[in-house]
Specification:
Layout (H helix, E strand, L loop, with lengths): L1 H4 L2 H32 L5 H36 L3 H30 L6 H26 L4 H4 L2
Helix pairs in contact: 2-3, 3-4, 3-5, 4-5
């Protein structure tokens, strides 16, 4: 009952903070990815291995935060505002995001278990494509499930 008494700002204003923190983590992920992609050929195998493991760690953290925190909050918000169109769009976006999750987790699994960097160029390219697709879909999801209700939240 108390939840029903809270204003929209009190209930959904915190979602922006969760999203901001998550997007900051995305930026860190991109910096690691770009640095590694730009210099892996010139760096020692030991340096590349360490950077790949760091990339894997933050990528898994980022994916986990999305699936277990951010998306749940976005869906709750869409349901609270009874935004059926946005929820339908989100369902389609989830399908695409799930495909990128598999690519990211496959990269992680491979490079957590081996120090063989023979296919790192191809794997980084595939990972970059997955990141690009995922970030575009996540941005759309934020737009339709959170930004679309911004005016209602601040009332």
């Amino acid at each position: 009952m108390l939840e029903n008494c809270l204003s929209a700002q009190e209930r959904w204003g915190g979602v922006s903070e969760i999203i901001d923190k998550w997007l900051q983590e995305r930026q860190e992920l991109l910096v690691l990815y770009c640095n590694l992609s730009e210099h892996y050929e010139q760096a020692s195998n030991e340096t590349v291995e360490l950077e790949v493991k760091s990339l894997c760690e933050i990528a898994v953290d980022y994916v986990s935060a999305g699936h277990f925190e951010v998306y749940d909050q976005l869906i709750k918000e869409g349901k609270e505002f009874d935004d059926k169109d946005a929820l339908k769009q989100a369902g389609k976006l989830f399908t695409s995001i799930d495909a990128t999750t598999e690519v990211i987790l496959d990269f992680n699994d491979k490079y957590q278990e081996t120090d063989d960097l023979g296919t790192i160029a191809q794997d980084l390219s595939k990972l970059g494509e997955a990141f690009s697709s995922r970030f575009e879909d996540e941005d759309k999801m934020i737009d339709v499930l959170h930004v679309a209700h911004k005016d209602q939240v601040t009332q």
